[in-house]
Request: fold
Amino acid sequence: MIPLVDVQDLAFSYTNDPAHSVFRDVSFSIRRGDIFCILGPNGTGKTTLLKCVCNVFQGWRGTIRLDGREISSMKTSDVSKGIGYVPQNQVPSFPFQVRDIVVMGRAPHLNVFSSPAKKDRRIACAAMETVGILSLEERPCTMLSGGEWQLTLIARALAQEPRVMVLDEPTSHLDLGNQVRILRVVKGLAEGGMGIVMATHFPDHAFIAATEVAIMNKRSFAQKGPPEEVITDFNMRDAYGVDVKVIQVGEGINRKACFPSL
Amino acid sequence: MYSSGKKVGLGIMPGKLMIFLTLLLAVVAVASLMLGQLTIPAATILKIFASRLFPIEQTWAPTLESVLFDVRLPRLYAGILVGAGLSISGASFQGLFRNPLVSPHILGVSAGAGLGAALAILFFGNIIAIQFFSFVFSLIAVSMTYGLSRVYRSTPVLMLVLSGIIVGALFSASTSLLKYIADPVNNMPSIVFWLLGSLNNASNKDMVIVGPIILVGITVLLLIRWRINLLAMGEEDARALGVDTGRIRLTIIVCATMISAAAVSIAGIIGWIGLVIPHIGRLLVGPDNKHLLPVAVLVGASYLVAVDTLARTAIESEIPIGILTAMVGAPIFAYLLRKTRSGW
Reply:
């Protein structure tokens, strides 16, 4: 079976000098239902990597294939039909209503001169329904909480009807309840057959949701594999420079969790 | 369920609002044809128009016909196009630059036009040269801004604004220099008056050239108006949504610049409209450019025609329209701002 997304030996640098690359030798692939979590310290290039995969950044080296086709040879709009992107983004200056923002996800399916038709608005509605924000559809985006805004961006990416969704730290800056709500939505999407790539700062979220984890550090993937093998005391210390205990938790939770010590 | 007749802004349906605004423009247009030093009754205007098509006995003074066709009609035509054009350019630029404080002049259109006009007044002194030079110089100024912004590799939109400030400063300083060395009896007042803006010089001949430029610009912006929403989300978001941001940005800049340059060349520098009409539009229909741009076109046209009518009827001599657009517009805007419910 061809993976949904297949990344081989990816490298990116802002300058033309490969010696100053942000990252290099990055390879991974995503199949239906996968949740691939990327951990790593601030500033190691997780966001840059995700932007390369979504074709927001160009000029990377290596290959990125979407359903077996190289995205460098595809039209931008065709890439956007396959890959939905949930950025770390601020609310725009204009008070667009939630539904206006979600329907923007239809852009890759529309030509330059058209605006969304009934069908597009229906798809946007379905997307809002899926993430549970249909009741907010008329709310100006300037009046949303952080969690609601994050769900709006996920709904927008869903309206693209992608096969893969790329999320950049979707749970950062959110309270515990919203973190879990976002993870629940993401897990639901994967159960529906979508491939997920997600950068996160919470190793526990990888234990909760991920099928595969990579740690990005020192300009590449330092580790990659199943969560239990990658998120270990040693690897966490290596990546974050602090002592961490990874402990199996019982009490009905029955999974591992990370406990840092001061 | 998502209904197409959604209520936003002040809670008016965009469809109904468009009908109302079209009627408003018609009323304002008829009033502007009637009013002036000579008042022409609406019935007479109708008869004069009809006489062009049907054999009707002439019961009006021949001067009325000339006032209508050679003075008021081209002026009305110019008012509609300049008002609509500056408003839609402003709204598009505010979307492109993701900033509600942007006007169509941000990339240096008016600074360029000012210098062109000042040069033409000093060296040629005739109206055709002034129009031609102001048009060409505003295009030069914006091209310089765009070229300069491409030199820097980082965030294109921010660099455009900064380059616009740099180029604008250069051209404005040059205009000031020309004002300083100009003959203070004739040339300097001409430059100053030109900079204040007026539709006084609009003639049928100008409109044949300028009209199509503005109309094409407005049409293209209306066609791509939903895409401008995507740019308002930011460069990278738009790219992730499959938008060729470079091309759409250039399209908006070219259209808005052609419109503003053409408008400035026949009407001088009319500020405020391109900044404020989009805000009034947003108060009426919300920030979605799908509704905002058509509304801005109609409101801008009505507003400039109304203000121009006021400019030439309020007192004996004509008041420069650039002064009035602000003097009338500022209080209206201040009043409307009270009604805004959710930010911009």
